[in-house]
Amino acid sequence: MDRREPLLHRLGELGARIGSRPPSSRPLRVALQLGVAVVIFGFLVLTVINQWGELQKKGVHFDLIWLLPALAVLPVFYVLGAVGWDLILRFLGFRLSAVRAQVAWGQPLLARYVPGSVLYLLGRLVLSERAGVPRRITLASIVYEQAISAASGVAFASYFLISHPDLQGQPGRWAVLLVVPAAILVLSPRVFGPLSTRVLRAFGRQPLPETMPLRGVIAMLAFYTLNWGVVSVGVYFAARSVHYIPPDKILVVGSAQAFGFVAALVTLVAPAGLGVRDAAFAWAVKVALPSGSFAVGAVIAIAVRATLTVVELIYVGAVTLLGRRDDAAQSGSQRPGVGGQRAERADPP
């Protein structure tokens, strides 16, 4: 009698082989995801168009000089994002060179705009594997990264959410204070270790050789929270290019951006959070405006999205060139892989 392997084991094998051929097409899913993104983002654009005359009376203008500091500060946010992921890998026992970490984290960044985020995840897995990091370690690092990013985003935006005028009288808003301790609990090795082992075994995979220590989880939460401070400055300058916002509202603007990030992460609908992130940001950032206008918030959201897209293009181009230079510098060596230095096993920091 032919005994087939359990379904989860076969799915695990499929996941381990992914990348050897292009992922299967899902036209309906892609159409739905793009449709949601276009509808939500289009709603913001139509809001701006329909109220343009009123927006001009409320102080909307275009002062492009403010984009210069935004273009200088925001790339630091992406660089630190790659540094954060590299630190997570080190806590998991693998060490990449600084260049390889930037390349593996940064090159697939634009693939987030492809619906489903499959190509983005695949790019991270493949580039990390070529640098010497096993796929299951990379996948674990991405789980840690997304969970810690979300928790730090909520932590950064918690005061803003609790004090938001539209949420007054809603007792549930205080629940955001539970996110950080809950994340620390779930990601602690005593919980995450057995949990990840159970999931991996269900898919026929071996347990992770390492989990992040509790001090590592707490340290990375602090690191990502500080990085939200960096993005606050950059986003403030981008917002200031279309409307006056008092300097003392920088952290409010940054909190609004963190709120939009978490909203996009939770919904998992639109590619790169397009539409969802921007609408949430527009609703949140209006608190920093004297007029409290959602329409003005929509203008700011569109300006910030455009600025972030330009910065992402610049950053991805820079790390691509950096990776090619590193490949050329290493081409004379006999190291395995596709250029560059291979990851090394390392003791957690």
Notes on the structure:
- The chain is mainly alpha-helical and 349 residues long.
- The protein has one domain (28-331, 339-345).
- It is 66% helix and 1% strand.
- The chain is built from 13 helices and two strands.
- The protein has a two-stranded antiparallel ribbon.
- Helix 5 packs antiparallel against helix 6 and helix 10 crosses helix 11.
- The radius of gyration is 22 Å and the shape is globular.
- The termini are far apart.
- The model is unreliable at 14-26, 28-41, 51-58, 269-273 and 334-340 (pLDDT under 50).
Annotate the secondary structure layout:
Blueprint: H1 7-17, H2 27-50, H3 52-57, H4 67-91, E1 94-95, H5 98-106, H6 118-130, H7 135-163, H8 179-187, H9 189-202, H10 214-240, H11 250-267, H12 276-285, H13 294-330, E2 344-345
Helix pairs in contact: 2-13, 4-5, 4-7, 4-10, 4-13, 5-6, 5-13, 7-8, 7-10, 7-11, 10-11, 10-13, 11-12, 12-13
